[in-house]
Amino acid sequence: MRKRSKNRLRIFLYLLPTFFFLFFFTYFPYLSSFIDSFAERRGNLISFVGLKNYERMAFDSVFHTVLWNNFLYSILTVPLTMLFALGLALLLNRKIAGSAFYRTAFFYPTVIPMAAASMIWLYLFLPTYGIINRFITLWGGKSVEWVGDPQYAMISIVIVGIWKYVGYYMMIFLTALQAIPKSLLESAYLDGAGPVRRFGSIVLPMISSTSFFILIIAVINSFQAVDQVYLMTRGGPGNATNLMVYYIYQNAFSFWNFQYASTLTVFLVTLLLLITLFFFKVVEPRVYYESGET
Q1: Phi, psi (rounded to 5 degrees) for 54
Q2: Confidence band for 65, pLDDT divided at 50, 70 and 90
Q3: Cα 278 to chain center, whole Å?
Q4: Do residues 222 and 74 make contact, with C-beta atoms less than 8 angstroms apart?
Q5: Which domains, ranges and CATH numbers included, belong to the chain?
Q6: CB distance 287 to 212 below 8 Å
Q7: Are 146 and 155 in contact (CB under 8 A)?
Q8: What is the gyration radius of the CA atoms in the chain, in angstroms?
Q9: Residue 209: which of 288, 106, 285 has the closest Cα?
Q10: Cα separations (Å) of 176 from 84, 85, 89, 209, 213?
Q11: Taking a C-beta distance cutoff of 8 angstroms, is the pair 57, 63 a contact?
Q12: What's the 3-state SS for 14-48?
């Protein structure tokens, strides 16, 4: 009995640092933001205003634009990043010369900080000296204001987001592909199943749990994008690329309205929780697990 108590105490001590960081860096900031969302600062005084900040958010036209921008950014980046990552993983899963080099090369953008990646792409997008516009004009096209034109500004930050994460998701897909028993693929091949049939009937179901995991983290990452917005466009032109986290940053540190920024934070966290819950209720039951559970 005493030995069991010592083991429980030891387990608790091991978990204590994790609980500490989880509380002070996750739960406490959210709780603090939730409380601040019902307050308003007037001079040096903070007063309780109830749902006033939420009413303001409901009628805030900039917030509506930012929310739509973030959904658009997520719709563009998540499926494209997953498709490119899966395609690269399928190619690099084969025995080809230099596969280790290609894996490293495609994974390398993941190691680069998003701030550095944004500055690299900002240089590539320069209207006069940028390499991308040089190629466009070389083939007879017109130079494009990638980050200065509302028509192309969102595309520019989408490209950066895809380039940054595709290698990371590729490695996760590659790990899942290598875990598929070769006997299943060989049996399907002997039964006359072609590449498309083997991919649809064996590969996709076997990596569905990995795809579900990537889908969740990709959606969350798409709603946390801020570095490329801050460094490349500052949310412009005309809020065309303003996303939720950057709008929260603007209200907190540019407009010095921490209470409204807290309201936006509570909304964003709640939205991500609802999206995650939706995926677990609708998508997760269709996921195949090797244990046979669905």
Answers
A1: -70, -35
A2: very high
A3: 17
A4: yes
A5: 60-286 (1.10.3720.10)
A6: yes
A7: yes
A8: 24
A9: 288
A10: 15, 12, 9, 9, 11
A11: yes
A12: HHHHHHHHHHHHHHHHHHHHHHHCCEEEECCEEEE
Longest dimension (CA), the chain: 82
**What is residue 185's predicted lDDT score, i.e. its pLDDT?**
85
**Taking Cα atoms as reference points, which of 200, 172, 164, 163 lies closest to residue 86?**
172
Burial (0-12, 13-18, 19+ Cβ within 10 Å), 49? middle
Mean pLDDT over residues 241-246, rounded? 97
Length, in residues, of the chain: 294
Q: What is the pTM of this model?
A: 0.90
